[in-house]
Amino acid sequence: MARPGLLLLLLLALPQWTALLPWPDTAQGTMAGLILTALERATSFLEDRLPSINLDGVVGFQVLEVQLRGVQEKWVSNPLLRPLSLRTEQLTNTLSTLLQRSIFYLKQSDPKYLREFQPSIQPGFWKLPHAWMRTNASLVYPWLEPLDLFSEESSDTCLVQLLGTGTTSSHPCELSDFCRTLMTKTGCSGYSLSHQLLFFLWARMQGCTEGLFRQSQHYMSIFCSNMMDLNRRAEAIGYTYPTQDLFMENIMFCGLAGFSDFYKLHWLEAILSWQNPRAGCFGKPATKGELPEATAHQQHILRRVRRREKLFTDGCSCHNTATAVAALGGFLYILADHPHPGPDDGSAASSYQDTSMPDAQRMDRPITLLLRSWSQKSHAEEEAEEREQLQPIATWGVGLETEGTGLGRLGGGMG
Question: Which of 305, 317, 327, 53 is nearest to 156 (CA)?
Fold first, then answer.
């Protein structure tokens, strides 16, 4: 099988008449098959390592199962999509069985953590977006707080309180003054920021609508706009390890929150290229592609906040694999949700603008708009655009590690 990067580059050369082909023979169908192959490999990894997979890993696959069911609902009635639909159905059934079996092992490995966060792996908890929105660069913070103001323990406390699974609270949607302040604090980045979004995302899943939660959409718009900014910075430094995990977590969470501009074609290509071709997992790459050695302070943070990360000897990571499959499941879902975007469909466009870069250098068009534009441009125009996109982004010289964008897992629960 050809490498994902090669296949996606071939998609860029599709001629105009592909828009007239049945859906499975178009760019959408090709990408859907490519994503399904990656997800099938990742599910094989889950099956092979099931006794050792932690709860964070199971959560990612639980989200994927929901996404696959959403895709199946959109494909099942179309006879042209029967091959893809059957693959999706088979993968969904396999996942469902594995997820049920995983509970047995989680009860043995970390019963307290399972009790506190079990709602996140229960059927019906995760819900897919049915309306799409865009991030807004005007909401990006002009400054960032120090990373270690937001610990895993404090994040755990607030998420457990929200779920109503703690020893001192049994009612969902409860909110202490401490958690109200922590989860609305401005200037957070990295995993602190993604867990602020997760808090309001879980509030939506739980049906919390009173008090602060009346403003859930407001806060999610702020957080995802800043998470978009962090993802662009990760891209600017070449997705160096360990930024890949946070990069995929941001796509996972903001995609579930309904922000379609996180689903970019070149981001899909990057994620597919990170999969271990033998094990099917995602995790620590070979020696190249890592950030320079961290400072002692950064190393301390990494040890302190990743206490539940499961890293296998072959470099496979439970958390990386979980965020990867949920991000890829989101790409598949939006492809199914936007099979033929109309000429006036701007739902997937991003309002994010980087004024330091010319438009031709900004590879930020969401996947649905890219699919539409391919059928409207000549091959020469596509080649010219590709050459422009490959130019280095000189204006983004500031590295993630100097901006405090979170190289450690500063959050708790699923993060």
Answer: 305
Percent of the chain with pLDDT over 70: 68
CA 223-225-227 angle, to 5 degrees, is 70
Angle value at C-alpha 224, between 222 and 227, nearest 5 degrees: 115
Q: How many domains does the chain have?
A: 1
pLDDT in tens, 138-158: 999 998 887 656 788 899 999
Q: Please indicate, yes or no, if residue 1 is contained in any of the structural domains.
A: no
Segment 296-311, tens digit of pLDDT:
333 333 333 344 567 8
**Structure tokens, 55:** 């709860």
284 domain-assigned: yes
Tell me if 326 is assigned to some domain: yes
* Residue 203 DSSP symbol: H
Q: Could you tell me the CA-to-CA distances from 320 to 2, 154, 207, 232, 399 in Å, in that order?
A: 23, 22, 28, 19, 21
Q: The tokens of 144 are what?
A: 């960032």
How is residue 291 annotated by DSSP?
P
At residue 284, the 3 state secondary structure works out as: coil
- Tokens of residue 229, six digits: 């900014």
Confidence tier at 168 by pLDDT (50, 70, 90): confident
- Domain membership of residue 43 (yes or no) is yes
Are 273 and 7 within 8 A, CB to CB?
A: no
Cα–Cα distance for residue pair 194/146, rounded to 1 Å: 15
Please report the pLDDT score of residue 19 as a whole number.
Answer: 38
For residue 56, the Cα-to-chain-centroid distance in whole angstroms is 14
Phi, psi of 316 (to 5 degrees): -65, 135
Q: Which domain holds residue 29?
A: 23-351+364-385
Between the alpha carbon of residue 69 and those of residues 89, 92, 221, the distances in Å are 8, 7, 26
Tally Cβ neighbours within 10 Å of residue 404: 18
